[in-house]
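tool_call: predict_structure(chain=1)
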Amino acid sequence: MGVKIRVLEANHGDCILVSHEGASGVANILIDGGTSTTFKYGPRQRYDGALCKVLDELKSKGQHIDLAVLTHIDDDHINGLIKAFETPNYLSELVKSIWFNSSRLITLHYNAPEIPENNILLTDDSPQTSVLQGKELEALLDEIGCERTPLIEAGQVHKVGPFKLTVLSPDKNQLKRLLHKWPSDDESGATATHDNDYQLSLKEIWEADEFESDYSAYNGSSIAFILEVDNIRMLFLGDAHDHVVVNSIKKLGFSEANKLQLDLVKVSHHGSQYNTSSEFLSLLQSSRYVISTNGSRHSLPNKRTIARIIKETDGKICFNYSDVIKSLLLDHEVEGYASRLETLEEEIRL
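tool_result:
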């Protein structure tokens, strides 16, 4: 009995598996799929990535994915899942239901013309499985009988097996911003700084810290939600915009005086300074703040985010790549603050 969270090594992306073992069996929620190499990598993709290994494990145990959440369209969140859908005997067999605010769902919801350029095509180079070549993801989901929800937006509450999911993002305004042709992967979500701020001291950041918000429409469309099971409560933010999440949390009745009590927070946008404000952190009480990235893109996480979490909370800041921690503190800061930073174990048990 209990909950297990695995924050997979997904390069600069997100890929998280939450599993609950109860009297009726094991239920699994997969949140994003990281980059394409999170599933397969190397010459001719001959090596299994972290996502592939986890899916193989679930297959060997006779388990399935009760819900897959594709938070938004950025390549470091969706491409690993696309590769797994393209490969026979993986997600097309394992996934029972899916959340994905596809372009087709958005245009239908707002009675707008469909935008064919936004449809996701699955490809396959293997002659043995050429049936998938050129198939749209939407068509495959229909073909395999994968349960689809209507558009996911803030304010909804869903039940999936033993889990309760309260949606905090996106709101209607964020979704409407996607009613146009979507850009290529390289253009879609690059709203982080490219020069790191690791030379600044925590004191310097605290003395002159001002929050600027992420402006990316694609990050703003990210699905974020509170996940509850048994007496455990977690917050998964994708790359969601800070102000949208703050507004949703306040609407639920939480405040600085009545904090949202959590066992884990998956920090938004890999620790970007534009997605985690001090105001947001003041609304929470959590023992863990998880940042998923290997630090290879956009100089993430920003030290400003680390500084805000250290100042506003008493929780641990947890990383799925140990190398990321090494550069975050200056020599004179190590003694006072190194105990706040830690590398995640292979799995978190709650």
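agent: Residues 35 and 217 are 20 Å apart (CA to CA). Proceeding to next step.
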